[in-house]
Specification:
The chain is of the alpha/beta class. The chain is built from four helices and four strands; from the N terminus they run E-H-E-H-E-H-E-H. The chain has helices spanning 14-25, 39-47, 66-76, 93-99, and strands at 5-10, 30-36, 54-58, 83-87. The protein has a four-stranded parallel beta sheet with strand order 2-1-3-4. The longest helix is centred in the N-terminal third of the chain and has 12 residues, at 14-25.
Length: 100
């Protein structure tokens, strides 16, 4: 049996994380290995050795935003590096360019 893709969700919108978590859990090949409601929680989870295959992270979050999470991940240089999907409802092109 193939191992499921481990997904870590990071968004301060609890309703959205519940919906996305429910959707991912319905997929045969994926599972949610954690949910974080701010950027510092993401770093805490990863520093505990729980490295996801995919990190879905909102750009705008309290304590440490999504761009801050990307910078921290680069600093701690985790292996293997998760695939990262950035989300935002904020339409600023300069923010999007920074994420890239």
């Amino acid at each position: 049996m193939q191992q499921k893709i481990q997904v870590l969700l990071a968004d301060d919108n609890r309703e959205f994380t519940n919906l996305l978590s429910e959707y991912i859990s319905e997929q045969e090949d994926m599972e949610v290995m954690g949910v974080a409601f701010h950027g510092e929680e993401v770093i805490d989870i990863i520093e505990q050795g729980k490295i996801p295959d995919v990190l879905i992270v909102d750009i705008i979050m309290p304590h440490l935003d999504g761009l801050g999470v990307l910078e921290k991940l680069r600093e701690i240089n985790i292996k293997p590096q998760p695939k990262i999907i950035m989300l935002t409802a904020f339409g600023q092109e300069n923010i999007t360019q920074k994420a890239v």
